[in-house]
Amino acid sequence: MVKTLDIIVPVFNEEKTIETVIKKLEETDFCSLEKRLILVDDFSDDSTREILSKIKNHKVIFHDKNQGKGAAVATGIKNATADVVVIQDADLEYNPCDYSKLLKLIVDDEADVVYGSRLKEKSQEKSFLFLSLFANKFLTALTNILYGSKITDMETCYKAFRREKIKDFKIRAKKFDFEPEITAKVIKNKLRLKEVAISYNARAYSEGKKVKAKDALQAIFTLFYYRFFD
């Protein structure tokens, strides 16, 4: 029976939003699961580390050098002990309330992994920046072609996992290649993967969005690598 939940929050230079995100996570009911936050600071150089150093009621981990989002998530997974693991970005693009829809499928034993899709409903496309929408659709389509899947949003941050199913995955990704790597491994290991629609509020690059064009190229390489060479 699923009883506990670890919420992994990779953090880098989020001094403007991190306290709000933590408060939202504390106030949100996650299918009545007993929850714990695992905050992984990836060597922020603003006041984020100072803010996190004052937190006593959650697990906080500090990287001693900047490694990338994927490395921060991997650190979180290594330190997770709960029945279910989810990922929450430290900005305000996603609404934590949406996670209940993902978790219910795992609690009811209908899935091992659930993705919160920002593109399952066409009306959500208006929430994207144009280039981000194109890149997400292209990378998702490439995933489906290479792996024979039928997902609608491979790059989504909102992913929920039954921890026992992924605890032995060796995550090599350091940056934003985490999403294609974990997706490739989930599909190749034939885990029960489902999607549910979620809301999304993209922030502009001027507001601190960190994904760049080179990350899309890395994602393409990662998808091909895990399809044919690993």
UniProtKB/TrEMBL annotation:
<dbReference type="InterPro" id="IPR001173">
    <property type="entry name" value="Glyco_trans_2-like"/>
</dbReference>
<feature type="domain" description="Glycosyltransferase 2-like">
    <location>
        <begin position="7"/>
        <end position="168"/>
    </location>
</feature>
<protein>
    <submittedName>
        <fullName>Glycosyltransferase family 2 protein</fullName>
    </submittedName>
</protein>
<dbReference type="Pfam" id="PF00535">
    <property type="entry name" value="Glycos_transf_2"/>
</dbReference>
<dbReference type="InterPro" id="IPR050256">
    <property type="entry name" value="Glycosyltransferase_2"/>
</dbReference>
<dbReference type="InterPro" id="IPR029044">
    <property type="entry name" value="Nucleotide-diphossugar_trans"/>
</dbReference>
